[in-house]
Amino acid sequence: MLERYREAIRRNAMAHEQELFATPEVWALGSHAHTVSRRALLLWLVLTGHMDWSRELGDVLYAALTDGAQCAFSVYRYSEEGCPEETPYLRAARAELVRRGLAPEYVERAREAYLSEGTPWGKLERWTASGEVVLLVDASTLALSPEVAEACRRVAQRVRPEVGLLAGVTTGYELYDLGLWGEAERAAREVAGCLQELGARLVVADSAEAAYALRRICPELGVELGCEVVHISQWLCGLGDGLPPWRYEGVVTLHDSSRLGRGLGVYDPPRELIRRTGAQLRELRYQREQALPSGPTFGYPYPEAVEAIARRRLVEVLETGAEAVITTSPYARRNLRLVARGAELRVLDLVEWLQHCWEG
Amino acid sequence: MEELRREGLEVSESLVDRLAYSHDAWPLELKAAVLGRPHWLPRAVAWPETTEQVAVLLRWAQRHRVPVVPYGGGSGIVGGALADGSALVVDLKRMGRVLEVDESSLWVRAQAGISGQYLEDRLNARGLTLGHFPQSMRASTLGGWLAHRAAGVASTRYGKIEDMVLALEVVLPDGEVVRTPRVPRAATGPDLDQLFVGSEGCYGIITEATLQLHALPEVRRWRCYAVGEFERGLEAVRRVLQRDLRPAIVRLYDAVEAAPYLEPWGRAGECLLLWGCEGYADMVALEVEHIEAACRGQGWSDLGDGPAELWWSRRFNTLGLVRPLLESRGVADALEVSADWSCLGRVYEGMREAMLAAVGERGKVYGHLSHAYLTGANLYMIFSAEAEDEEAVAHTYWRVLEVAFEACLSLGGSLSHHHGVGLAKARWLGREWGASGLRVLWRLQQALDPGGIMNPGKGLHPEVGDA
Description:
Chain A has 18 helices and nine strands. Chain A has helices at 6-13, 24-29, 36-47, 55-63, 70-73, 86-99, 105-117, 139-144, 146-159, 173-177, 181-198, 208-220, 232-238, 261-264, 268-277, 306-319, 330-340, 350-359, and strands at 127-129, 133-138, 164-169, 202-205, 228-231, 251-254, 280-281, 324-327, 346-349. Chain B is built from 17 helices and 18 strands. In chain B, strands 15-12-14-13-17-18-16 form a seven-stranded antiparallel β-sheet, sandwiched between helices. In chain B, helix 15 runs antiparallel to helix 16 (393-410).
């Protein structure tokens, strides 16, 4: 599994660490083991037979944020060959650790929860409604921020009452990222089946991770959806003048979710929606391709470090002077809310914020 | 190590952690580690979170005679942060906060483990800058800058790290904590800050620093010229600096290194003289006026600011040093020396010729000037080489350094302008300082660290360097 990435691993192991400052897990945990080059070095030593797989190695590999910021700053971005992306081989390494029974315990709990109750978070209520356009509300949104799920549903039905609905399923992003690839494929096939039954021709994904899973991970797993996939921000932008009179007078900033931005190249639609409300958008210092991560997604081997990781992004947010930070990921919303307590700052999902603008 | 853990310190002896610290960016050990043959594998790694924990750690190390090697970003390219199997690596990255900013007096106090870029970002948000932009700033820490006496690309205006230091907090090898006073200047004995800056972890562990700041510049302007001869470019830089001007960025690239920047302008084959002036608009205008006067009438091509924008966008590009290492027989390094204006040209030619002869047909040698002074400047001499076989890589590397530093020192240059000594240059330290100078360094080390635990086996340690 890992052999496919042999050259990428070797190149990263030999690199100068120009992305070090953009790897917040290093600074939260304090250890050089969590740098891109050392993670690559450790995997290279495994590949070349100098080291064995181990739980300690697993903890290091699962502590990586898989956000892809590496390539925005890597020394290899100056090369013709481009940057050897770390995220694919980290996920492949995690899959290998799962296969060997060396993944952290929370990974196994996620697998058990999915197999017994349908999502890594356990049993969640499901809703479906047929339509050519189907809003997909991922299990992660329901589990982490049910108010955002409700906002997505209300906004979608306001602008297009005929929109269908598929809520409470997992698109498999978390399962894939954790190395549970068999389970991820099963989840993706279930979603594909549901969408087919609902008659979907266009899926509107409510979150960055859901959009990424449907557009990037499904093909990796050999799952064909049979319909087009857009993120909800893209869908709303595409409706042109058909949007409600959202108005906001104030200053906001936008945290580009790694999966929507670097993952799918979607940067402008959220900005366009913000612009249309009349809000003043103050950009973060590190934005778009250079957006720094807010923290981990599902689970983390070092839970005590999650706040420290998020706080590095919060510092940037506070420096804009914005009254709200908008994001498109339930994980980013959770991570930033964790550390925004006590600060005069609201942390809102994009659609959640749009709903506030609409309803006042 | 259990004793340290009982004191609340996190310490690891796991193989995974030790391998993570088995190299810095020194090419020989970087290659060895990736080949699975690290020569430097520490005994353990510790992550203190407070100055008191650093003090506890050093007292413990003295009691048990355990060598200690401080570690920051691991970006040093002279092997200064390598630790052998008896040593404890002390990684300061959990001590990475901005502690205080005084916008009236223009200083910042920060912990030594702070990321260089993170520190600069926090200052920029307040309209301030440290003015320190080494090529490694995204990969290095404040403590590393201080320990190796670092210099950044805009140093001609803002100074080197030693010019920026106002005060330090240092934990001495015996665990005592020294805090130097934060004043603009004092005549109360020698400047203790300057004792520790450049000490490469041999005189103690720097835990905090107070550094002077500047307002973010109002404007930045570039002027670039394609220059026929490197020597004439040196002369132009000398004249501008000796006019008491201090443009932030001064770079003179020889024809080989200038090629990628000049090709878009059809001037490949010539040298690139690049000036970057920044600050208040009226001062910048004056600087630019004098630079233009110095460069006018030389028969040089005025390229405006074009090559500079390209250079600035690629200023973190170290591929020239990384790519050769990916080849099994390849090696590369960047040697940075300094010399007076009177001999700088000879140092450049002498080093270049000697290194070209050593790397042979399959190697490359190129260089540039990047930090200028009233009395002289720094020179970077960069090489890549291909050894006869994998086993000969180290031999090739040392042969190139041998001839390079022999040429440099014999022609009046200094061993290192800002990378430090570490392992890479230790064997020539005696030539640089002479026996008397070396004895002063040894006596300082022995006075502060009689147990000899601080970063042994490196340039400033009594075991290394010629008497």
